[in-house]
Amino acid sequence: MNALLRYASPILFVVVIATFGVLSPKFMTADNALNILVQSAPVGIVTIGMTFVLLTASVDLSVGAIMFLAAAIAGKMLQADMPLSVALGAMLVIGVTSGGINAAFIARLRIAPFVVTLAFLFIGRGVALTITQTRAMNLPESFLRLGSARIVGVPLPLLIFGMMLLIAHATLTRTPFGRQLYALGHNPVTARKAGLNTSLLLASVFLISGFCAALGAILSLAQLGAVSPKFGEAYEFKAIAAAVLGGASLFGGRGTVLPGTLLGVVLIQSVEAGLVILNADPYLYPIITAAIIFIAVLIDSGRNTLLERLGRRRIRNDSAQA
Questions:
Q1: N or C: which end of the chain has fewer CB within 10 A?
Q2: Three-state DSSP class for residue 234
Q3: Distance between CA 22 and CA 34 in Å, rounded?
């Protein structure tokens, strides 16, 4: 049972791949594998930001709204014939600014992250709907070229996703900042007593999450070519599920970007791609997504319970040896 909980995500990944591979030979082709990776890029980058947030035992429910808000403003700028580079820069600024607003309420005013980001989810989406007047906005061909561009044969979205994975992995494993995030999530009181600036650490992860949400929006728009009223919807739940399936904990202090986040994101995208190939009923998609989220939470709860038991055993053993 212990091994099952520890390796639940890789086991689930193998089961999903094998199941769809048996049901449809098209699923196991190299073209489909590349398509899954490219389609994973937007939600994968959002999940990277979510992983940073989850490490501090917080949650960011506003990422989908930030994506929509950034996309809506960029769409209006492009319709006004502003340069593409200006619109892209504006999206990133909106993402960081939105993350900064969340950070201010959470780190400075000490309001629970769940409450703050849930409020921003409704406010941000409401503002974006007002900007777009609930109408779809088609983007210029130059935006679509970002989604189809290749550098040395590698699709640009996949290249950006890979670079973000490497940067995030190096940050978490090779820098004091990364180690401090784990310490904060593991035990906030101890981290504070150790002299860590917990408020600054907490604020920083929401800034990172906001930036990742905006970057994810750019890649998603480059693939879709339009801003719809439902753009970015439910991305927060996909990101949370992918991060947890990859080994991150809702209780904080545990999680990786490589291979964790990558594994979780590809797992969820593989399920979606498999359903499309099988021509499954689209009304089943939300049900299956909900089931994945439930499985992710169940796995995380089981892992957390296991670690607590192991921790109690160590304490008893240390006491006996003393």
A1: C
A2: coil
A3: 19
Residue in the structure block whose two tokens are 């989220």: 293
Per-residue pLDDT tens for 14-27?
888 899 899 888 89
CATH of the domain at 105: 1.10.3470
**Structural domain count, the chain:** 1
Q: Which domain holds residue 170?
A: 2-321
CB-based contacts of 224: which residues, under 8 Å, 6+ apart? 231
CA distances from 201 to 123, 178, 184, 215 (A): 25, 10, 8, 21
Cis check: omega of the bond before 83, within 30 degrees of 0? no
Question: Among 236, 179, 212, which residue's Cα sits nearest to residue 56?
Answer: 179
Sign of CA dihedral 284, 289, 295, 298: negative
CB 187 within 8 A of CB 55: no
* Prediction pTM value: 0.92
Place 93 in a pLDDT band, splitting at 50, 70 and 90: very high
Q: ∠ at Cα 145 (139, 147), nearest 5°?
A: 95
